Amino acid sequence: MKPATRAAQALGWIDETTRAVIPPLHAATTYLRDPDNRYRSGRSYGRADNPGYDQPEALLAALEGGEAALLFASGMAAATAVFQALRPGDHVVVPRVMYWGLRKWLQGFAAGWGLAVDFVEPDGYEAALRPGRTKLVWIETPANPTWAVTDIAAVTRAAHAAGALVAVDNTVPTPVLTRPLSLGADLVMHSATKYLNGHSDVIAGALVAARRDDFWRRLVGIRAEGGAILGSFEAWLLLRGMRTLFLRVERACRSAALVAAHFSAHPKVREVLYPGLPSHPGHAVARSQMTGGFGGMLSIRVADPIGTAARVQIWKRATSLGGVESLVEHRASVEGPDSPAPPDLLRLSVGIEDPADLIADLEQAL
Asked: Which domain holds residue 72?
């Protein structure tokens, strides 16, 4: 089956008890032991093993082309688990432009955990590698909120030669547009709150692994022992959202491209940051590793960003991205003084509304 069919049918799984095409909601936290004190069902306690995770994890692994997936309570829980699986003294390389919450967490966590962290530009990964000591390279591409592009395959080759694993934050492209494991990466992370769920009603995270190796087993243990687990109802909602993933991402890509093209020559817009524009410095690399579009995220730089955001009517002034509704946010004021976002930047998350309405609303706001 094509990936879009797998997503729409959630792998085609049928509930064996009722023959329902929609999975049941598993609320149980504990499971019955057999008379001989064993668990032949394979399940013992909900924190370590929730049957409601089976289908969404299997679907996400299939879409990303991985061997296994893990759901977490949030994208931050998934991302931080990767760094917690490292050892004190390990060296990691991460992008300077990345999700601000993870950057802030790393700046505070790394020293206490004994990690050495280098923050780099998209072309600075290879120079920052320390063969034998670098254990993890973290990539986010396109990177939030400037949408800088990193060549996943090239960085992965260099990282593996230095003995490091590569993890890619694939929240924005989703497997609809980019499959990092096929480009050589070892792990994929998602803030599943965003496009995977797509309806702004679930906070969730996920990791997908190319292999069930020792590092993966450490991640499994961190989730079970640390308790950063997703609720049963949230897992059910996440699976429901993933079934329309391709429709939503494809619509958002088309609309974002129209918005970007319209405002790229607008007299009141200083710059449009969107990998789909030929003028974007990362356009050629994005075109080589993104198929079917360049994503639903872009940023614009304007003289009066706060005032512009205040005047929108259809776009919603709110944090987050990847939902069916279009959002606008002034990132510099959210992220604080060390933000890499220019002070004149507005981040736009394009939803599934009519693109003509979105363009008209930004026009009147400008």
From this structure: 3-242
